[in-house]
Amino acid sequence: MTLPLDALYRDIILDHYRSPRGRGAMDSPDTTCRGSNPSCGDELILALKIRDDKIQQAQITTTGCAISIASSSMLAEIIEGKTLDEAIELGETIRGMMRNEGEPDELELGDLDALKGVRNFPVRVKCALLAWVALFGAIKDYREGNTRGAVSITTE
Amino acid sequence: MQGATAAAGAAANTSQGLDVAKLRADFPILLRTINGHPLVYFDSAASSQKPTHVIQTLTDYYERHHANVHRGMHTLAAEATDMYEAVRRKAARFIGGVDPSTVIFTRNATEAINLVAYSWGEQNISAGDEILISVMEHHANIVPWVRLCEKTGATLKTIPLDENYGLDLSDIDTLINKNTKLVALTRMSNALGTINNLAPIFKKAHAVGAVTLVDAAQSAPHMPTDVQELDCDFLALSGHKALGPTGAGILYGKAELLDNMPPFLGGGEMIELVTFEKVTYNHVPHKFEAGTPAIADVVGFGAALDYLMELGMENIREHEKEITAYALDKLSQFEWLKIYGPADVDKRGAAVSFTVEGAHPHDIAQYLDSYGFAVRAGHHCAQPLMKALGVTATTRASFYIYNTLSEVDSMCEALAEARDFFKV
């Protein structure tokens, strides 16, 4: 029989999970945000280097599940070179997609399209959104001049 | 993966006291399939499944007997009151034979502990006092005390873990001192399975005049409970983990403590006389049961207690020791799997927490679910414990009366597959 797991753990997701991009802490980041998922205890730290309003580099530290690692790996890969506005717009698209509020085009999403399968597993949607929520927190903190010290945000 | 018949067949020889194959037929939900596989329910530490006897009792109550309790003059009101109060006597027997008026119905163990924190706590705890709990407590036995400490200026102290996942009592004579006003401990850890020997600790607590509370949410469904033997002043348990419906639990308290405690919630039922200037309160237990209680759920909880007492709590404990020993043996053969909890089944219950090297507990639980296994993954409402263990989460398989050795076998097969699937 076809395992429902196949829809969740698509090959692209397992690939990102096994060789995640942008892994590890960053030296002197321009902004960071700690994202946490209170219902399961998972945490992730997203660090960004920003030049001229563009994201140069994203690094992630986490011990999360396969979905959370894959989603954060895809984030690190896709947001490099994007302006802060573009990054937020993409994040909103992903959040809308995961909440079944929109159906973005496959081509536009690239690897991120594989996250659509997570929608069939509602308890895992938070895992997929953790890195993106941290992205919102990190950019907000950067725009406010990093005035609040260590920024934390949750998926609740 | 096995089928329900295989599971039932193997069950016949698993236990001295329980006829597991026969009692499985009492649990309609065990006929369910999940993702095309027979349900294997290994999440009873979170909430147990319900036998037909309990489900039928709920239906029968609503179809034939329902009315509000304690206040009506009519026949149904009297029937409902009798049924509700009969469960109080039953619960009093279940926890070792106490005066039924010392048994208060709550929604669950969480509400029972909160009742103590708000009512007894706010009257008896002040700045400079100490409350002692342990690192292995469920949030239900942490958060109410943190809040009480915040409000009063008291200090929360914790008993650490020892290397065998038990309580490290090497500093107990410092931890329990003249400032200690309350010692509140779990009898069985929901995340580690550890059974704590509470009586010696409580003896020290009483020697300094402290009050003692047992969180029996995990232990009460799985082993005999005797509040005299435990030497406790309060005991909290949830019915829904013990075959009962959700929404019914109990708080036991010593009469002299309950008598002197102010009410928790105000409203109907808990009063003696009300004017706009002054209210005098009903006696215990009614003083603590404001408003219409969960009558049907309490009545259903009574049916669950009948079922458990008929099986015999000693027999249940023996069955669980056998299945837990079997599971620990099988799981410890996987060199990539780490078990968090005592190895000795005499010192532990049937909740087995583990992690799989290279795979997150969520992913393991998700994989097992695709084969019909219901296990828990996460922090098990015990974040300080997870921190002490150095993990953010574990996967937990917890067993109960209806689980079989062959179900454990098939979970181990699925775990080996999951390991391969997620291996980095």
Supply the key terms.
heterodimer; A: 156 residues; Sufe protein. Chain: A; four-stranded mixed β-sheet; 4 strands; globular; B: Aspartate Aminotransferase, domain 1; Aspartate Aminotransferase, domain 2; seven-stranded mixed β-sheet; four-stranded antiparallel β-sheet; 39% helix; disordered N terminus
What does this structure look like?
The complex is a heterodimer of chains A (156) and B (424). With 156 residues, chain A is of the alpha+beta class. Chain A contains six helices and four strands. In chain A, helix 2 packs across helix 3, helix 3 runs parallel beside helix 6 and helix 4 runs antiparallel to helix 6. The relative contact order of chain A is 0.22. By secondary structure, chain B is α/β, with parallel strands linked by helices. Chain B is built from 15 helices and 17 strands. In chain B, the strands form five sheets. A seven-stranded mixed β-sheet of chain B has the order 4-10-9-8-7-5-6, with helices on both faces. Chain B has a four-stranded antiparallel β-sheet with strand order 13-14-17-16, covered by helices on one side.
Pairing-aware structural class of the strands and helices of chain B? alpha/beta
CATH architecture of the largest domain in chain B: 3-Layer(aba) Sandwich
User: How far from one another are the termini of chain A?
Assistant: 35 Å
Number of helices of chain B: 15
Order of helices and strands of chain A: HHEEEHHHHE
Q: Per CATH, what is the topology of the largest domain in chain B?
A: Aspartate Aminotransferase, domain 2
Strand order of the biggest β-sheet of chain A: 3-2-1-4
Order of strands in the sheet with the most strands of chain B?
4-10-9-8-7-5-6
Multimeric organization: heterodimer
